[in-house]
Write a structure and sequence with these properties.
Radius of gyration: 22 Å
Largest sheet: 7 strands, mixed
Number of domains: 2
Number of strands: 11
CATH architecture of the largest domain: 3-Layer(aba) Sandwich
Strand order of the largest sheet: 3-2-1-4-5-10-11
Shape: elongated
Helix content: 40-55%
Distance between the termini: 57 Å
CATH topology of the largest domain: Rossmann fold
Number of helices: 10
Strand content: 15-25%
């Protein structure tokens, strides 16, 4: 076993429900292995400023049910530069870190790889509601975000039905349509528009609305991933070409917050413990990932691969949203 005396843990990029559960698991599993664990506050920005605090068992008491991150998070333009990477490397050495655990999305994982390339032993945990980390089929926060979106759209549906209108709802996900796809299925959306599938406005929205109108449906939900564009334009075109009263709603950052779901708490805990296992047993930097429901460790290079969109699930949505 490779001895590790002192490690750091940080959260970076957009916050995701379950990050606190991952921090808790890292700290407690690390202490159980005899490690000294330090929290780096405010992500890579904090690493550049040596903003570190010792963490004990009680430092992570009663945080598993909270959204956000007790270590705070920030985006650092300085870290994105070569000089920033070198400063971060030097600061890891100043702090005496034998390893660094980074919890965040694809940008944070790229940062972990940059540090790894400079000789810093890093383990990355995918924490992002977007579910867009290529080497992992699931990321911490995804389930909570989808459930939040589903609950919000359910409420929007109530008023859409009362007014016999069409509601266009934008969900988060950047250039990944996973939240839109699964939320759309869960709420029975008439149309689901995602970045991964080229769409035709007439075929994929208008024709589907008109088809369901003929079967007696009088209210409609259109789910649009934020990577598509301005939903106001979509709503205006629907109203203009169908005469149906149409509203648009951007759910926005409400999807990032809130108490994490059971799945996110459990997966975050599993990934945190796995990260400590890698810190104690491996020599090469890794990304913690989920594959076929199992928690595994991937090489950093695997993040460069393109993530496959679930086209079969998309086709399922087309068949049942009528």
């Amino acid at each position: 076993m490779r001895e590790k005396k002192k490690i750091g843990v940080l959260t970076s990029g957009g916050d995701a429900p379950g990050m606190n559960a991952a921090i808790r698991a890292v700290v407690r599993a690390g202490i159980d292995e005899g490690l000294r664990v330090f929290g780096i506050r405010r992500g890579f920005h904090g690493l550049l400023n040596l903003d570190a605090v010792y963490m004990s068992l009680r430092s992570v008491s009663d945080i598993i049910n909270f959204g956000g991150t007790i270590l705070y998070t920030a985006r650092s333009q300085e870290f994105a530069t070569k000089e920033g990477i070198m400063l971060a490397k030097d600061n890891c050495k100043k702090l005496g870190l034998d390893g660094l655990i980074i919890i965040g999305g694809d940008g944070s994982i790229r940062g972990a790889k940059e540090l790894s390339d400079q000789g810093i032993f890093c383990v990355a945990i995918p924490g992002t509601i977007d579910n867009d980390v290529n080497c992992s089929e699931y990321t911490i926060g995804f389930d909570t975000a989808m459930n939040t979106a589903m609950q919000m759209v359910d409420k929007i549906r109530d008023t859409a039905e009362a007014h016999e209108r069409c509601s266009v709802v934008e969900v988060m996900g950047r250039n990944c349509g996973d939240i839109a796809l699964q939320t759309g299925i869960a709420v029975g959306a008439t149309a689901i528009i995602v970045p991964e599938v080229a769409y035709d406005f007439k075929r994929d929205i208008l024709d589907r609305i008109k088809m369901t109108q003929k079967t007696g449906k009088k209210h409609f939900i259109v789910i649009v991933s934020e990577g598509i564009g301005k939903i106001k334009d979509v709503a205006e075109k629907i109203h203009k070409q169908t005469g149906i009263e149409t509203t648009e709603t951007v759910l926005g950052h409400v999807q990032r917050g809130g108490s994490p779901s059971l799945r996110d708490r459990v997966v975050a805990s599993e990934m945190g413990v796995k990260a400590i296992e890698i810190i104690c047993q491996e020599k090469e930097s890794k990304i913690i990932a989920m594959e076929s429901g199992r928690i595994i460790a991937c090489n950093m290079e695997q993040e460069c691969q393109k993530k496959e969109f679930n086209l079969a699930l998309y086709n399922t949505a087309l068949k049942i949203s009528i």
